[in-house]
Design brief:
The protein is an alpha/beta fold. It folds into two domains: 352 residues, Glycosidases (TIM Barrel, Alpha-Beta Barrel); 64 residues, no CATH class. Helices cover 20% and strands 23% of the residues. It is built from ten helices and 23 strands. Strands 3, 4, 5, 8, 9, 10, 11, 12 and 13 form a nine-stranded mixed beta sheet that branches. Strands 18, 19, 20 and 21 form a four-stranded antiparallel beta sheet that branches. A two-stranded antiparallel ribbon has the order 1-15. The N terminus is likely disordered.
């Protein structure tokens, strides 16, 4: 993410049962040392501050480099090339071990694709689908021969797309979700659009990912633009616009929108606000009509947080004290969703690229680095339908016995329910003409 940047058809309402509660997530980007030294990934996970950490970046795709593998950059954290023919494909066993440690502490680890400085993109949907297979096999649950993080299996991918075209990103996500659908664990897809709506590259809009693909988390970069946090007092902060997208356009009816913020005044060209102001802005979101789509706060980045008196730790204390409950049932509104059958998860951020690093005294900095982007949350995927981990089928909402929150099941050929707080919720209906169909870990409303 950069600091200086700029059908299945569903009409219906999703009722969120009053028992459903959500603790906002604290998210941060790591890996670019954009404002000086960063500690190891495992060190940040040990603090308990972070629910999601996004590794930045994969900054070139094979499609644009005429090479077989993607290019990666993690500043001074990893510099071991795979071979001379692929000098920018890194092998990072220490980061891999830290990923496993972080996951054991309950921290989701995503890998960000894009950034402010990279050269990336697709020439076609077919090319994007092929790259999704490569990503699955190298970083996620596949069995590729080359695994930059060893045995570590990441929790998902983030799209911080700040240059190039809109081509291929929906197909990329759809192909990843086809892998996710039969996987034994949950995966997430996030994105980090700029706050001006729609984002030039991610959308929403015809042919864009935010129009037709299933995102779990969307961390909107509310900085470096006139809709940023520093313009809140002027009435220009536009979380409501993105909240309306979440409720009425997003393919995922449970998508979470995050407030993306710089972690220090040096973390962005403009947009940093002190903690008290960030709390005021967050409170205004929670008092408004889009409280149910608020996912938390995303920060750019760990190095800026460290040099700003552990700003992220203060944000964590504030967020983790919350327990947002949706009120009686809340109607999220009519939705349009696209027709593909895929599944998946989480979001995006990015900045910096170049592979070389320089050392001045005890400080390391990437030759191109910096930047940020924000927001995240929730999961699920597929042509329609909602979410998360595993599917149980049969029965009725009145079934006794426990269930796993987020699980879904078909009740009849046209109705379904979701588990919240170990109890099955209200019955929900597929749109007219569609039938309920469990697929892998997800439920879809599909044409018969």
């Amino acid at each position: 993410m950069a600091t200086y940047s700029k059908t299945l058809f569903l009409l219906g309402t999703l009722l969120i049962h009053s028992a459903l509660a959500y603790v906002p997530k604290n998210v941060i980007y790591w890996g670019q040392e954009s404002n000086g030294d960063e500690s190891s990934l495992a060190t940040y996970c040990a603090t308990g501050h972070w629910d999601v950490i996004v590794l930045a970046f994969v900054y070139n795709f094979p499609t644009d480099k005429n090479s077989q593998y993607p290019a990666m950059n993690f500043a001074g954290h990893c510099g071991s090339s795979y071979n001379k023919a692929n000098p920018h494909l890194l092998i990072c066993p220490t980061i891999g071990a830290d990923i496993i440690t972080c996951q054991s502490r309950g921290v989701q680890i995503l890998l960000s694709f894009g950034g402010a400085e990279g050269t990336y993109g697709f020439n076609s949907d077919s090319q994007a689908s092929t790259f999704a297979d490569t990503v699955w096999n190298m970083f996620l649950g596949g069995n590729g021969a080359i695994r930059p993080f060893g045995n570590a299996i990441l929790d998902g991918v983030d799209l911080d797309i700040e240059s190039g075209s809109t081509t291929g990103y929906s197909a990329f996500i759809q192909q990843l979700r086809s892998h996710f659908a039969t996987a034994p664990k949950n995966y997430y897809i996030s994105s980090a659009p700029q706050c001006p709506y729609p984002d030039d590259l991610l959308g929403p809009g015809s042919g864009t990912a935010l129009q037709s693909a299933w995102f779990d988390y969307v961390w909107v970069q509310f900085y470096n633009n006139n809709c940023g946090l520093n313009h809140y007092s002027k009435g220009a902060f536009n979380f409501a616009t993105w909240g309306n997208w979440a409720q009425k356009i997003s393919v995922n009816p449970n998508v979470k929108v995050f407030i993306g913020a710089p972690a220090s005044a040096e973390g962005a060209g403009e947009g940093y606000v002190p903690l008290a102001t960030l709390q005021t802005i967050t409170a205004s979101v929670l008092a408004g009509p889009y409280a149910n789509v608020f996912g938390g706060i995303m920060l750019w980045d760990t190095s800026n947080s460290d040099l700003n008196n552990d700003f992220g730790g203060s944000v964590a204390s504030y967020l983790h004290a919350m327990n947002i409950a949706a009120g009686s049932p809340v109607t999220t509104g009519p939705k349009s969703t696209s027709t593909s059958t895929s599944t998946s998860t989480t979001g995006s951020k990015s900045t910096s690229t170049s592979t070389s690093t320089s050392t001045t005294g005890s400080k390391h900095s990437t030759s191109t680095s910096t930047s940020t982007t924000g927001s995240h949350s929730t999961s699920t995927t597929g042509s329609h339908s909602t979410s998360t981990t595993g599917v149980q089928t049969g029965g009725s909402p009145q079934d006794t016995g426990s269930c796993v929150s987020g699980y879904m099941k078909c009740l009849t050929s046209e109705t379904y329910t979701m588990c919240a707080h170990s109890a099955w919720g209200v019955t929900q209906s597929c749109p007219s003409g569609l039938v309920c169909s469990p697929t892998g870990n997800y439920i879809y409303c599909l044409r018969p």
